[in-house]
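Bit of a strange request maybe. I'm writing a small parser for structure token strings and I need a real example to test against, not something I typed by hand. Could someone generate the tokens for this chain?
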Amino acid sequence: MIGAEIDMIRGARIAGPGREFLMDDEPVDIVIAGGRIADIAPTGALRPVGEVLEADGSWAVPGLWDNHVHTVQWALAAERLPLGDARSAAEAADLMRDATPLPDGRVIGAGFRDALWSDAPTLELIDRATGSTPAYLINADVHSAWLNTAALRREGFSARDGILREEDAFEISRRLNAVDPLHADAAVRQAGERAAARGITGLVDFDMAWNADAWPRRIASGFGAHRVESAIYPFDLDRAIAAGLRTGEQHGSPLVHVGPLKIITDGSLGTRTAACSHHYPGEPENFGVLNVPPAELTDMLITATGAGLAVAVHAIGDRAVTAALDAFTTTGAAGTIEHAQLVRHADLARFARLDIAASVQPQHALDDRDLVGVHWAGQTSIGYPLASLRDAGARLMFGSDAPVAPLDPWHAIGAAVDRADDDREPWHPEERLTIDQALLASTRSAIRPGEPADVALCGFDPRLAHGVELREMPVVATLLAGRMTHAA
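Reply from user aminoacidic:
Good idea to test on real output. This should exercise your parser:
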């Protein structure tokens, strides 16, 4: 039934946004017309018309969104050697020793997390393992890359230890992702199908590339798995303004809209470059880095706002978050703060007052909890706030930062509800959200008449699920504007 235009979902129960309009949990029929929900009535009250999808009592939630994805990098991750389980630099190098070269002769590993390694990555270590084959190891957060001598020479970089950080690492990532468009589009199409299987009907694409041409091309070649908001980076800002791109406007297809200008203002926790108000332990001079000085950030927001572009400001450390909020205050720009992993108490209410959404990745809190205990032990700001932001009136938007974390909205929802994904006690349980709050942060519509017919049918009631059951929620079917994009 993939691709079928559904006219009625029969016998569904509703969870998430839209349920508040119903008196009970009895099954209903959802009538769809013109890509939108036209009517909802108790099962059997309306005569079936057209193509009917039998829900058999499964639970309907609005189509899920991932508000932070690096799409091509995520799609190509399936072709790269996973390094997330490497427990040391030596182990990561050994894994690369047997990596299969790509057709262009390079070997690429992705997802290593070196912040708690007992040994340091060195040029000698990776050279010994990979020899003359150009080898690239990309950190999970993409803020650093470990290259061997052959790769450094090929790319025209130098580094005594083989480690490139921040802008140099981003440039390496851009080059690795700049594969043949047909190859990239095929990988994105397959990845989109996987996303639909988890209930995804929309994502925000933060690929570090000019995406304004790529998405219309993909749609024209048959891509139809989900909606897309495609971001712009500062190196393409003048080009975007000249092309007349404005955030929110349709671009080449009803499924594609212009996204925000993405500005990376600081580093990351894993590389100890997130800009913080307290120094990192053992490094009294290291308070992280502000990649974009406050005055320059303000100028960029003024330019973007004048051109009709919203802004997505990457700010992880509390000093970067404060600087971002200051720039939003000065300019009146609209948009989001991406990540917001360390937030001063005094800044919580500023999100709501400025109507700046906190675009956060709940799974990062669990992936980074051990790092926080080491690198942010002396910080007095709030680490990975969720409930604190919501209680202060901030609007939350969930994402994955894929491929940093899996593109699976149920992982984000589960992390927000449980604040645990292993046998340990929940991490800062005071920051947990309810399932209804987590679903609201993961959706952009509701199950009610007049709303887009973007629907995910779940195998059981999300409101009663916890732990593995919630994170591995079976998705029976996914509809995008009434068209079937996934059927179990």
